[in-house]
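Design a sequence for this backbone.
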């Protein structure tokens, strides 16, 4: 008999129906420890895994149920879930569709985390008084992380873009697994003894268990004991490791650690320009203050000295002489204007001015000839032009 060929969708649908029809998988209670918790802020859904000593199962809690929960679950929390086991057919994934969560208290790993946190806090490991300032212009930065991870490459890319003058030294270590904390502590010590200006220690994101090497007492004390300023760059922004509290600075991501470690070249140039402007302004202000003070004292000394009094009287005499000159000049100007007006009037009534326009003045025996009948043939007359005189005989 020929076997029927089924599609992936048919297989997933069949399995989904089988699980959905099983009453034992409905409204089940499951005890375990939360891990890989994600609060999806856009949708409001919770995604996480529930694990015990040997196994794990995926779980989801939709927004409608999450809003009634009354608290936000955390990694390491020991809980009892209520929900249905169903299949997410698209991925062929079965998971607990959670309707309720009861907090039974922190799991063993999370309890150890809190216990160590309280111990180190009481010992002063996290005190702000132990924090060191980061160097403003580090020339060499030691990076303690995995040689194979993306962290070192991200840090290199950021530093190459922002501060290409910085030298990077990698101190490769294990960042998870057995004895990873011992390896990390040894790497920090090597970087500290290498004479670098700044240390960045961290790794990429992961589960609470994956990051636990950075919450080990060995690792935390290595951060605390480092003489060189050290930045913790563990996981993503929402991840929390105890070394964050012991470091001189906690960065949300490794890339952010590289950005916080150095000034960008443009920022450096702006800072230098600011220092230059501030120094120049301070010099100019100081110079102005001293110059004004010197001027006041010089003037005071001048006024108190005999020479100063003489100069003062001389200045007053000069002012009065200048005032008198001004009055005299004003009188002369006024008289010159009056004379000019008289001259203009005289010129306007001057007969010679009329002659300059082409007219002539005819006289006979010293008398003006006003008409033709005033002369007879043979009379001698005198003709006056604007530039001279001529005599003539009447025809």
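Sequence:
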């Amino acid at each position: 008999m020929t076997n029927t060929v089924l599609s992936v969708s048919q297989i997933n649908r069949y399995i989904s129906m089988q699980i959905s029809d099983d009453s034992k998988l409905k409204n089940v209670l499951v005890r375990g420890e939360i891990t890989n918790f994600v609060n999806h802020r856009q949708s409001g859904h919770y995604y996480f895994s529930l694990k015990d000593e040997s196994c794990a199962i995926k779980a989801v809690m939709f927004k409608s149920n999450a809003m009634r929960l009354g608290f936000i679950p955390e990694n390491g929390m020991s809980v009892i879930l209520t929900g249905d086991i169903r299949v997410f057919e698209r991925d062929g994934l079965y998971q607990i569709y959670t309707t309720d969560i009861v907090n039974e208290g922190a799991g063993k790993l999370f309890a150890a985390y809190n216990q160590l946190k309280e111990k180190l806090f009481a010992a002063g490991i996290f005190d702000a008084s132990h924090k060191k300032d980061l160097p403003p212009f580090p020339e060499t930065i030691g990076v303690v992380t995995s040689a194979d991870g993306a962290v070192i490459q991200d840090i290199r890319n950021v530093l190459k873009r922002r501060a290409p003058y910085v030298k990077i030294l990698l101190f490769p270590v294990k960042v998870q697994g057995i004895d990873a904390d011992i390896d990390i502590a040894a790497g920090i010590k090597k970087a500290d003894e290498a004479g670098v200006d700044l240390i960045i220690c961290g790794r990429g994101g992961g589960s609470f268990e994956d990051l636990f090497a950075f919450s080990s007492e060995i690792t935390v004390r290595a951060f605390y004991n480092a003489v060189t300023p050290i930045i913790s760059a563990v996981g993503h922004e929402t991840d929390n490791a105890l070394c964050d509290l012991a470091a001189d600075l906690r960065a949300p991501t490794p890339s952010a650690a590289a950005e916080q470690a150095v000034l960008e070249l443009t920022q450096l140039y702006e800072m230098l320009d600011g220092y230059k402007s501030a120094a120049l302004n301070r010099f100019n202000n100081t110079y102005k203050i001293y110059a004004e003070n010197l001027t006041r004292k010089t003037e005071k000394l001048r006024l108190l000295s005999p020479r100063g009094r003489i100069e003062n009287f001389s200045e007053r005499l000069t002012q009065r002489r200048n005032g008198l000159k001004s009055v005299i000049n004003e009188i002369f100007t006024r008289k010159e204007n009056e004379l000019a007006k008289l001259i203009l009037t005289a010129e306007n009534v001057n007969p010679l001015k009329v002659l300059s326009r082409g007219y002539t003045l005819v006289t006979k025996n010293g008398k003006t000839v006003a008409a033709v009948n005033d002369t007879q043939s043979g009379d001698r007359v005198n003709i006056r032009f604007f530039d001279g005189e001529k005599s003539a005989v009447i025809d």
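The mean pLDDT is 87.
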